[in-house]
Amino acid sequence: MDKIAIDKELRENAYPGRGILIGRTPDGTKAVTAYFIMGRSVNSRNRVFVTEGEGIRTEAFDPSKLSDPSLIIYAPVRVLGEKTIVTNGDQTDTVYEGMQKGMTFEQALESREFEPDAPNYTPRISGILQVANGKFEYRLSILKSNAGDPASCNRYTFSYANPAAGEGRFIHTYKCDGNPLPSFMGEPKRVQVEGDIDAFTNLLWNSLNAENKVSLFVRYIDIETGMYETRIVNKNER
Length: 238
What we know:
Elements: H1 6-11, E1 19-24, E2 30-38, H2 42-45, E3 47-52, E4 55-60, E5 77-80, E6 83-87, H3 91-100, H4 105-109, E7 124-132, E8 135-146, E9 149-161, E10 167-172, E11 189-192, H5 197-207, E12 213-222, E13 228-234
Antiparallel strand pairs: 1-2, 1-10, 2-12, 3-4, 5-6, 6-7, 7-8, 8-9, 10-11, 12-13
C-alpha cells in the first residue's frame, strides 16, 4: 500500500464523516492520534469538543438546537493508564470499562455493532494506542453492516506493532458523501504524518471540507515519558 498525503486525501473527499488517524512523528519520538467529526444536519453540526479529565467529550454548542443526543453526545477520547482510547461513539466507554475488567480491545467491542441509524448504519470505528517504556503500538477497529444489510455485523481489527516513523493509518466512517452514506471499505489508509503538533493540526483542519467540518482533536504523546500535548479546534467557537 502506497503512503498518501493526508491533506490531499481529505481535500478530495467532502464527507468522510468521522475519522481516526494514529501514527508516529517523522523523528520517531512521539505517538500521534487525531479524531475529527463532520456533520450535514443542524443536529450534527451543533457540537464542540471540550476536555474531560485526560480525554474529551462532545457537547452541544447551542443546547436549544439539540434534537437528538443519542449518537452525537459521547466521549471520543478516554485514557486508561498507558492506553489512549479513541472512538466515534459511546463504545469508548465500552472499551474503557471492558479493559478495566481485563478484557482485550477486541473482546470489549464484541458487545457492540454499527450504529442503529438506518439506512446509513454508520460504522463504529475505534482505536487504541499503548505507549509504555519507550514502546508504542496501536490497533484500529471497524464494526460495519454487511454491505448495508443490518442482519449481519462485520468486524475487522488491524494491529500495528512498532509503527514506522513519519506515517500513520487513517480510517473513517464513510467512503464518501451519498444517500444513503456508503460505509468505509478496506484496510485503513497508510498516510503521511509530518510536522509538529501545531503544524499537523493546521494541516488537518484546513484540509477538511469547510462546510461540513465540525471539530478536531490532535494529541502527540512522547514515547519515552508518556507526556502529551493536545490541540482542539472547534468550528463553533465560544
